[in-house]
């Protein structure tokens, strides 16, 4: 792992002696104690509970064959829900959803990053107007936008699968642009400049300096773009013309009936888990700041 | 709000769909229906086939996409496990597209027609009736005059008003019948030992048992049907309500309806301060024991709901002396379907004795047949007679005794609006 032309050795960072600043974590100024500490822990626990609680009935329903009012807990455990979810095409829909969301994230994230970089550096003329334009998919009522766009796509004979990806990318770009703009406004171009000054090619600078530095922001915006594809019902159905049956289609249609609680619970749980896993990965993406390496 | 997280949807499964989508959908459908008329004119495609053999040849190898409401697991399973294999034998692949609302299918068709895609549409077949059929017909979105070609249409009575008109809209061969439904009142035998036997009796029962009865708020499909039931009752029978809408008839007959419902309101669940928004919510109230008497336009699903424990075992269907509303649901083929022949083969197969018997079995789906039992051979008739009886739902001939015809579709919004301004605004 050598940078090649420079004397900067990324493997062995110079050990900085810990320098304490007032306000740093652990200093007397930031130490919470007594009532404040208890309140902080209590409120964190409450918020955690608030988020976790809705999942409890979901988990219970997933393994309940029978659960009637007024029983507090399922009366008969079983896998009927799973069987019904699979019979309704849940398995294939899960794979379709995963593929679609990954493709949307893979396209919308770099586009959003490039747009954000250009906008935050002020290279673009009419930056404000372009920002509004970029955000217009969020501002328009989705239903009107989708139907209007779809007429266009149909007239242009765009294949449904490509149409779905195109429209979802357009919907995701405002989110990726917005989150990347926040990252770029805090980004110090000095790192890129320093690397170039030291002789790194622009490609090397991008790979070894720039991307590692914005990696956490990229992961966050990719997550947002993933969610756009992962949760969409309307665009996938109306633009996709039924060629692509994704998880939200199956969930929405089975949730519109009565008596499917356990299969809807299984489907919903399977829809919640991938984003949660991704969120776990994002929490682990560290800022690969060369000066802060472990 | 482009992002909705899946788990949010699960937390309130029906309200999101019922409140947001239909409002938008209705607006869009209306707008599109209007613009579709002015868009590059799409003359509805007439019959393109001389005879059934022609259709069969053209259908060979086609893949038919059936867009249908996916909220009924039994219905989904019937199509996937019984109808699709039978279509495959005829050389047609049947694929189900599950949707939360039938309007989604119409939206797709209207968009395609607006874009001038007149021969390769993504929707080949739609499970449809009532308002959606009418909207599509007004926009010339259906392929018409094709049902006479289906060999199995000879098993269907051509004078049955339930099958020649769909909520007052003439069918005109633009849709093939699939099954019948009967509006039914449902009660819990354990808590209602002496159930009422007339509509007026039901309302009186509700007043004697405050808080144990309610109905879905119009314009919910079921809630709106309940308004028509009560309108028939307070008018002294359906014979006294002209099926074709007129302002005069509405002005003359509706005040008695709203007066009766106004009088009833304080005795309803939560004193009528709020109403369930959908029939699914009403069923939930009944399932949770909050009410003892409810109603449904889809009695076919009751057997399974009792069996899987959603509804109590003491659930029974009430047979009402004045009779209840009946309707039929159909298969429609959009005029721009790319697989018209295949869709016709599926619709014909669905009308076969084997399919209608299988579907009528409460263990499969329990939907009432559209076939005319009088024209069937003795052997075929025996198949229907041999069907296991549901412990919950009476057979169709009992349930449809004194059946009331549906009013024309124009009555529906008028009655719904009147309910909103008089009863909901109390």
Describe this structure as you would to a colleague.
The complex is a heterodimer of chains A (294) and B (426). Chain A is mainly α. Chain A is built from twelve helices and two strands, in the order ααββαααααααααα. A two-stranded antiparallel ribbon of chain A has the order 1-2. Chain B has 426 residues and is an alpha+beta fold. In chain B, 43% of the residues lie in helices and 12% in strands. In chain B, α4 links the parallel β1 and β2 (93-99). In chain B, α9 (221-234) crosses α17. At the A-B interface, α3, α6, α7, α9 and α11 of A face α1, α2, β1, α4 and β2 of B.
Q: Which strand order spans the largest sheet of chain B, edge to edge or round the barrel?
A: 2-1-3-10-6
Overall pLDDT level of chain B: 87
Which sequence of strands runs across the widest sheet of chain A?
A: 1-2
Q: What is the oligomeric state here?
A: heterodimer
Based on CA atoms alone, the radius of gyration of chain A comes out at 24 Å
- Apparent shape of chain A: flat
Poorly predicted regions of chain A are 1-8, 289-294
Q: Please outline the major beta sheet of chain A.
A: 2 strands, antiparallel
Order of H and E elements of chain A: HHEEHHHHHHHHHH
Q: Unreliable runs of chain B, pLDDT <50, ≥5 residues?
A: 1-44
């Amino acid at each position: 792992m050598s940078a090649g032309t420079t004397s900067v050795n990324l493997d062995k960072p110079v050990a900085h002696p810990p320098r304490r600043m007032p306000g740093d974590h652990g200093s007397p100024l930031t130490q919470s104690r007594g009532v404040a500490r208890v309140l902080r822990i209590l409120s964190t626990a409450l918020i955690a509970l608030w988020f976790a609680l809705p999942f409890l009935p979901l988990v219970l329903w997933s393994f309940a064959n029978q659960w009637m009012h007024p029983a507090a807990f399922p009366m008969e455990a079983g896998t009927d829900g799973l069987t019904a979810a699979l019979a309704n095409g849940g398995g294939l829909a899960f794979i379709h959803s995963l593929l679609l969301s990954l493709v949307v994230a893979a396209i919308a994230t770099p586009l959003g990053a490039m747009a954000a970089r250009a906008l935050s550096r002020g290279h673009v003329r009419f930056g404000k107007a372009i920002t509004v334009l970029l955000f217009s998919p969020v501002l328009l009522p989705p239903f009107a936008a989708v139907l209007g766009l779809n007429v266009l796509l149909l007239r242009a004979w765009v294949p449904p699968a490509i149409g779905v990806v195109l429209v979802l990318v357009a919907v995701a770009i405002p989110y990726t642009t917005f989150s990347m703009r926040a990252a770029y406004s805090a980004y110090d171009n000095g790192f890129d400049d320093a690397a170039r000054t030291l002789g790194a090619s622009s490609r090397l600078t991008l790979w070894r300096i720039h991307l590692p530095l914005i990696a956490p922001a990229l992961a966050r915006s990719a997550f947002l773009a993933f969610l756009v594809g992962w949760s969409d019902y309307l665009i996938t159905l109306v633009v996709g013309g039924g060629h692509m049956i994704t998880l939200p289609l199956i969930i929405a249609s089975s949730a519109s009936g009565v008596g499917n609680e356990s299969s809807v619970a299984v489907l919903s749980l399977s829809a919640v888990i991938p984003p949660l896993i991704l969120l776990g990965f994002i929490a682990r993406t560290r800022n690969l700041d060369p000066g802060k390496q472990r | 709000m482009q992002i909705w997280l899946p788990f949010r949807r699960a937390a309130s499964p029906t309200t999101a769909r019922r409140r947001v989508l239909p409002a938008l959908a209705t607006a869009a459908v209306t707008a599109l229906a209007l613009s579709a008329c002015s868009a590059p004119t799409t003359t509805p495609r007439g019959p393109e086939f001389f005879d059934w053999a022609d259709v069969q040849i053209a259908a060979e190898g086609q893949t038919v996409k059936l867009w249908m409401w996916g909220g009924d697991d039994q219905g989904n399973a019937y199509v996937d496990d019984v109808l699709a294999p039978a279509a495959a034998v005829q050389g047609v692949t049947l694929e189900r597209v599950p949707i939360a609302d039938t309007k989604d299918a119409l939206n797709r068709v209207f968009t395609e027609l607006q874009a001038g895609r007149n021969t390769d549409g993504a929707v080949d077949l739609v499970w449809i009736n009532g308002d959606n059929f009418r909207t599509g017909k007004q926009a010339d979105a259906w392929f018409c005059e094709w049902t006479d070609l289906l060999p199995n249409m000879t098993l269907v009575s051509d004078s049955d008003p339930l099958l020649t008109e769909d909520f007052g809209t003439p069918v005109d061969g633009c849709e093939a019948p699939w099954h019948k439904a009967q509006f039914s009142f449902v009660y819990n035998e354990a808590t209602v030992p002496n159930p009422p036997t007339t509509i007026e009796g039901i309302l009186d029962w509700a007043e004697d048992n405050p808080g144990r009865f309610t109905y879905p708020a119009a314009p919910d499909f079921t809630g709106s049907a309940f308004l028509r039931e009560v309108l028939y009752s307070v008018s002294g029978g359906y014979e006294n309500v002209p099926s074709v809408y007129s302002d005069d008839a509405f002005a003359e007959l509706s005040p008695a309806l709203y007066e009766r419902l106004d009088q009833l309101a304080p005795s309803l669940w939560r004193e009528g301060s709020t109403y369930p928004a959908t029939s699914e919510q009403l069923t939930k109230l009944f399932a949770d024991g909050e009410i003892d008497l409810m109603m449904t336009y889809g009695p076919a699903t009751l057997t399974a709901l009792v069996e899987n424990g959603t509804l109590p075992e003491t659930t029974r269907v009430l047979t009402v002396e004045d009779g209840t509303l009946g309707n039929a649901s159909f298969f429609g083929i959009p005029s721009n379907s790319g697989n018209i022949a295949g869709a016709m083969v599926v619709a014909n197969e669905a009308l076969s004795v084997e399919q209608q018997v299988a579907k009528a079995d409460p263990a499969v789906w329990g939907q009432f047949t559209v076939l005319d039992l009088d024209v069937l051979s003795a052997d075929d008739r025996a198949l229907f007679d041999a069907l296991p009886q549901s412990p919950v739902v009476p057979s169709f001939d009992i349930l449809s005794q004194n059946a009331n015809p549906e009013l024309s579709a124009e009555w529906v919004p008028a009655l719904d609006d009147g309910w909103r301004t008089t009863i909901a605004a109390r």
